[in-house]
Amino acid sequence: TGAxxxxxxxxxxxxxxxxxxxIAGTLGLSATELxxxxxxxxxxxxxxxxxxxxxxxxxxxxxxxNLTLITGGxxxxxxxxxxxxxNLKLSxxxxxxxxxxxxxxxxxxVAITNSTAALSYTDVDALNISTVDGTSxxxxxxxxxxxxxxxxxxxxxxxxxxxxxITLALNTTGAITQPGGTITANILTVSNTAAD
Length: 196
Description:
This protein is mainly beta. The chain contains one helix and 22 strands. The strands form three sheets. Strands 1, 4, 6, 8, 10, 12, 15, 17, 18, 20 and 21 form an eleven-stranded parallel β-sheet that branches. It is globular. The mean pLDDT is 96.
């Protein structure tokens, strides 16, 4: 459906744990709870929310097409995001580090606002840098970005800024194609280990 469901803590700066349980100071949302939601887009958090972590059990809400995570802090994980048809939007003030080797989503869009805050994202197979829940491509404020994936499709722009040393690193095991958008960074590194 096209419906939007938003889940936010009632108090600013409260931590959000996806896959974990509620504890004092933390809103826990278990995989079972997330799988009970049916909507086109599920938004978790807001700009005043605390750090978001993905822990305890792998998550991949089965009833939604778009998952949006929003925080004024960081987004990190110890367990994976695993739903290959899920479109993922990450909106953060601070660094985003999602490098679990089992991560598996279809499309990714990212917006990071704080100066020099970096992005690092790993996906087990093909990934499309696209438009998700109104955000297109990847944007940082002079922060480095690293994408590790299988085949990588750049359907939208990646704009990191042009500060000295600002680096976009694309590490893939499949083809890299760029049907749309541009790349803005000071340094671009590409490592492609696709078989000939």
